[in-house]
Design goal:
about 110 residues; mainly alpha; 5 helices
């Protein structure tokens, strides 16, 4: 079965997860959740991992952070380009993204 045939279903599933996250953020205190942007993590993985570990109350060492950082990709992988997108599906995603503030700095083309 071709992966692209499941693309509309995958889009629906992805945005159901986004809806769940948005709902969760209304139910818990702001200091009980941390937003981690993928691009910032890739730009500075040791710092980002340290921030996440501190949030979770996990002690780290420089060796641990550097070892983890050494296996992080140097740039984001844009796997969305591995399947064919119709203009209608792109528009669908762009419209749905507008519903969620955590997608404000993203676009399909980025």
């Amino acid at each position: 079965k071709d992966r692209w045939r499941d693309l509309p279903e995958s889009i629906s599933f992805y945005f159901s997860l986004a809806e769940g996250l948005r709902n969760l953020k209304t139910k818990i205190a702001a200091d009980e959740i941390i937003d981690a942007r993928h691009e910032l993590f890739i730009q500075n993985p040791a710092y980002s991992l340290k921030m996440l570990c501190d949030f979770l109350g996990i002690d780290t060492t420089d060796s641990y952070l550097n070892d983890c950082a050494s296996i992080i990709y140097q740039s984001p992988h844009k796997t969305r380009y591995n399947v064919p997108w119709t203009p209608e599906l792109i528009k669908r995603v762009e419209n749905r993204m507008k519903e969620f503030s955590f997608f404000d700095d993203y676009s399909f083309a980025d």
